[in-house]
Amino acid sequence: MKSTPDPGPTLAIGDTAARFGLAAHVLRHWEHVGLLRPDRDGAGRRRYGEADADRIAIILRAKEAGLPLDDIAALLADADPHARRATLRRRQAALEAELARTRTALDLVTCALSCTHDDPTHCPHFRDALTGAHPSAARAAAHETSLRC
């Protein structure tokens, strides 16, 4: 009789890495920094079950959101919901700042593309966009409605 429940089917590190499109060394690194704790077989080889696969998927999604491994580890390990929220709020603020920079860049490119000047660098609206003289919405409206130079 078994003393522990059957963990179900498990995969070797190479198969698990391939399942997620990762290199095996990535899983080893995540284990080294404490993000993963795979079981070991009798020969000491790593074996990954469904719980490990779920955790890998969570790590990958968190990385897609731009979270560094330290923050991911804190989110996965921290039982304090306030600490989790603080970590997520910091990431939210960073993403909002990044989004604002991206919007500004998009406004500049849109202004240049919609300009009637052969060289947008000679357009006063484009120059205003470069210096940030107008808020982006007002700048776009002014560019659309004002006379072209």
Automatic annotation (TrEMBL):
It comes from the Bacteria. The keyword Repressor applies. The keyword Lipid metabolism does not apply. Keywords: DNA-binding, Repressor, Transcription, Transcription regulation. Residues 10-78 form the HTH merR-type domain. Pfam families: MerR_1. One of its GO terms (molecular function) is DNA-binding transcription factor activity. Gene3D superfamilies: 1.10.1660.10. InterPro entries: DNA-bd_dom_put_sf, MerR-type_HTH_dom, MerR_fam. This is MerR family transcriptional regulator. It comes from Embleya hyalina.
